[in-house]
Amino acid sequence: MTPDLLQLSYSVADLCRQAGAFIREQVSSFDQSKIVTKGLHDLVSYVDKESEKMLVDGLQKLFPEAGFVTEEGTVANDDASVEYRWIIDPLDGTTNFIHGLPCFAVSVALARGNEPVLGVVYEVSRDECFRGAQGHGAFLNDQPIHVSSAAKMNDSLIATGLPFYKFDHIEAYLRILTEYMQNSRGIRRWGSAATDLAYVACGRFDSYFEFNINSYDVAAGILLVREAGGRVTQWLKDGDPVFSRETFATNGLLHDEMQAVMHRHWQEGYRS
């Protein structure tokens, strides 16, 4: 079955808003004692799990033929052989949420193979819903969006995610970070990769890069950036920015200049 991606994107956006409403309700009453540590500095809460269950239930009804890739593993259906898979992060920015910081998002993508064809990022705190479908453009609260027109890195604002548990290649990463800091308007670490990419799509950020990142953090945002006129690749080559655990997104105009910095400091084959 080939889904109507545009119509499906509206329904997915509604589901993300519903999950976001649940998350928003939990902000004031969140129980810190129910935080679970998945790994070093990697946290999860009952809010993540409950919102994921809500999303899975709704998405199964919308498109039952699709499989799932989920952060919290509430559904055992990660079958790479199926044509379509939902890729879900029910609460991207859990650490922000737990600490009461206002940047966290619901992220849902539909991928055909490894290629995202639909993406929704709902940033809960600002009630902003970013939506896109392949071939139909990208939107913020149903208004069309486009990447920025910054043509030089010196005129750009860059987003990234800093390593928080895997530090094998920290020196090379810091060399890249240093050169970007010295040749841009600044670097921001928002704490939500999905939001970072959505902000590239609407022109608030001019680029975003992160290493050791998961598919469910970036899949929806990658679709948004591409549909908004930007470019997304791996760090040193076109490759697969969804499942390779490295994502580099720009407005397109900055891509070559910024990628040249990566080539000076990063080695092909670095993996988490």
TrEMBL record:
Binding site for Mg(2+): 71, 89, 91-92, 217
Keyword Magnesium in record: yes
Cofactor: Mg(2+)
UniProt-listed SUPFAM superfamilies: Carbohydrate phosphatase
Sorted UniProt keywords: Hydrolase, Magnesium, Metal-binding
Name of the protein this chain belongs to: Inositol-1-monophosphatase
One term of GO molecular function: inositol monophosphate 1-phosphatase activity
Gene3D superfamilies the record matches: 3.40.190.80, Fructose-1,6-Bisphosphatase, subunit A, domain 1 (3.30.540.10)
UniProt family annotation: Belongs to the inositol monophosphatase superfamily.
InterPro entries per the UniProt record, alphabetical: IMPase, Inositol_monoP_metal-BS, Inositol_monophosphatase-like, Inositol_monophosphatase_CS, Inositol_monophosphatase_SuhB
Reactions mediated catalytically: a myo-inositol phosphate + H2O = myo-inositol + phosphate
Biological process per Gene Ontology, one example term: signal transduction
Signal peptide limits: none
Enzyme Commission code: 3.1.3.25
Metal-binding listed as a keyword: yes
Native species: Hymenobacter ginkgonis
PROSITE patterns referenced in this protein's UniProt entry, alphabetically: IMP_1, IMP_2
Superkingdom in the source lineage: Bacteria
